[in-house]
């Protein structure tokens, strides 16, 4: 019975650990990131929040209605000294108490802005605010795409290096078997066998290091995708093909998302300056109120005239005009600060344009160099393989020492890794070139 229970537990454990490997193309990785990465989600939330910010600005142009209530108890009523002549008693002073111990008031008040330049400016800026967050969402998505694409290809390279090491280990094992057979038959020295065993041990160590690098790089990719770290992924071989890019077309910097975002920010700063300048303008508002008041020696709530409590209503409608005359140069200082902010963003625009042009030029140069390096390393790897095959045959026939064979293996491994690295350099430069054209979302169509 214990054995059955143990086997059942082991079976469930194996099932739990046997996770399905997810094949992941670049397009799938990007789409997953855009749906799940926190940065993309937060950018969408900012767009949603901008609508509420716009509604807040619009509310300032709408009537403001409030209800109010008040209950006051006056333990000691203030007396007022008046001339008795008004009451037919010249030459006397009368002390009169005005009011009642209990007063209760309830009413509704309304305020409507009729002219407020800052409100009008805020309404004009509302559309730009929405557009700013929409452009920011687009920029965030492009940043997510760039990070995912870069890490995607880096994972591929690490896995390719692992494949190279596995191939080297397999070939070296074959050589070890040959030397072992020769040693057993007295045709090889023990030092040759020891050297090949050391070589295998070193390859194993290197493989473990690369395996660790693969895991770390995959975890980074999953992080940038917003994917659970425990998910097992696989990248198809076809995802790392070299495709020629157009290098003659010069991108329009003014259409880049980074530049558009700064331009929209400049537009918002202009509105901000106008809103501050509105402090020089007068404001006009309409006010209205209707109230009901109860007064008497008892608490008015629920009381009637028979209790000595009397209720009456009153209302008022008015216009409030506010004309700023002198604010201690506060408004002028704020306007000048807004001017500085505008000049700063203009400098940022010039610097951003220069930076984007530089990125395109560097990507173009890197593409050209990488294509040359890829062709050179591809030929070099093929030549290193031929050298290794010939050296191995010569070693088996006793025409070459073991040192030459080990050197040939090292040269092939290095050439294959150099070729893979050249491919990575090309793909990373390709991403930067696509980015400089403002076409990162085209990766979703691959």
Automatic annotation (TrEMBL):
Principal cellular location given in the protein's record: membrane
Region forming the signal peptide: 1-18
GO molecular function, one term: porin activity
Subcellular location(s) of the protein: Cell outer membrane
UniProt keyword list: Cell outer membrane, Membrane, Signal, Transmembrane, Transmembrane beta strand, Transport
GO cellular component: cell outer membrane; efflux pump complex
Family membership: Belongs to the outer membrane factor (OMF) (TC 1.B.17) family.
Name under which the protein is recorded: Outer membrane protein TolC
Record organism: Flavobacterium segetis
